[in-house]
Amino acid sequence: MKYLTYQRHGAPRPGLLLDDRHIVDIPRLCRQMKVRPASTLLSVIERGPDLWSILEGAVASEDPASLPVIPFDEVRLCAPLSRVPKMHCYSVYEAHMQRSLEAVLAMRVHPWLARLARRGGLIRLPKSWYQKPTYYKGNPTSLIGPDDELPYPKHTEMLDYEMELALIVGQRGMDIEPGDARGYIFGYTIFNDFSARDVLIRELLRGRVGPLKGKDFEYGNAIGPWIVTPDELGDPHGIDMRVWVNGELAGAASTSGMSHTIDALLVESSRTEALVPGQLIATGVPAGGCGLESQRFLKPGDRVRIEIDGIGRLENRIVASEPERMQEVSDAA
Asked: What's the predicted TM-score (pTM) here?
């Protein structure tokens, strides 16, 4: 099943994708099934498996003609969740980490030294990176959705994209066991973790506590187009993904390159701290999934499209920041 949030008339509403032409309206379906309506997708998730079973069972068994459907081409897809209660952002791809270190060395020192370090096997991650996954806490209120625009942040000259698979937590749990981890997943979605790369590099090199304004800015996290349930996606550790910039293929990778499993991420996130329904856990960017590795960054007018097999497509456009837009209007006048 694919859960989504759409807007047709008025406020956004939660829905289920029936097929490529129809959406089932969840609040109306709740009333039809004589259960208390849920007005947002977060409330659907928080209500738990009993409600999910009712909704999914009705969509699977009812005559489509009897369902409260809306034509897909009459709606605008929104971010599945407009905000999340928590956001944990991991980085679990060794090859990406090594390529990123090489790129930073090339940018901060000299390209030939970066190449020499790579050939000599000197670009290594600390042993602690392999021992357990680590994360930083992202901004849970800065989410945008499919086809939404990102105003170019004024504090950076190196805006970057990050192609990532993310999961949404479905149930509360603390100090969970690895064998139980998958049972806490509500579903999976695409995540574009936009980054102010020059700011992030300075922050990390200065030894501050994790990313600050390198990651934390308004509208800096795109998710969508919907949340796919685990039974539909299958094994999350062998999924192909691709990213395009302005229609040109910029990178391709697979989740099979993870150095830590999704189960391990859930275990770590739940250690001495409860997982909560609606929580977003991002798995990190694989090698080839960002502009840093090739030192090609975004500018106003660029379009970034991410596709993950079994989920779908997420596209966003970079636009000029508000002061720049006002200057463009003034110049045109």
From this structure: 0.92
